[in-house]
User: What shape does this take?
Amino acid sequence: MLKIVLGCVFYLLFMSACSKSNSSSATKSSSATKSEEWCETMMQTANDQWTTEQAKLFARDCLYNEQP
Assistant: This one.
């Protein structure tokens, strides 16, 4: 049940990121963001193993980050 809830939460975060990326772009220094490899590793880790901080960083750097 927890995995379903977490999956829904991250789906909603993803959908929110998609809609916000079209309306505005955030300016971030590249040193403050996580690497693409980190994002890939997090994608392969079960959501219920993420800390709150990791979830926030994932949303900020992997979902909201517009890669060229």
Remarks:
- Helices lie at 2-23, 36-44, 52-63.
- The longest helix spans residues 2-23.
- The chain has one domain: 2-20+30-63.
- The chain has three helices and no strands.
